[in-house]
Amino acid sequence: MAAKPHAVFPAPGHDHDRCASDALAHADAICAARGERLTPTRRAVLQALLASHQPLGAYELIDRLAETGGRPAPVTIYRALDFLREQGLVHRIESRNAFIACVRNHASGDPVVFLICEQCGAVGEAASAAVAATIKTASRTAGFTPKTPVIEISGICAHCKAA
Ligand SMILES: [Zn+2]
Ligand SMILES: [Zn+2]
Ligand SMILES: [Zn+2]
Question: Taking ligand 3, which is a single-atom ion, which protein residues have CB atoms under 5 Å away?
Fold first, then answer.
């Protein structure tokens, strides 16, 4: 599925409902195609992460879910996160120990470059075939098989820089 090109950091006033509903529709389609079930818990976790472009820690996630229903057990949340990560619908931001919904619709094994804004906390996903190729070559030269092709870069997003 070809991802539509869009801004890595959507403008502050963008139609985020659209982002969130597109991502949910994509998640439904992926799960249906793979014969997986997007159970109510998995869906609720994904929806909570889709509330913004900022990552959430597992306990923040539990707090969000507790606002609309019963307080879920951490193990329930971790299981749902594991499932969503396996399906490539959610990524873990190692440096923040937090999770973010994927809005790029790429294959789950694709290398991802996360651009993390230190000011507003937004995380953008930059697709970079060139970076991916460099990592592959560097790894191969070292006789190394990369497992989690994820790069995290801290900095300031264009919107914060302009403000
Ligand atoms: Zn958005
Ligand atoms: Zn992604
Ligand atoms: Zn920012």
Answer: 117, 119-120, 157, 160
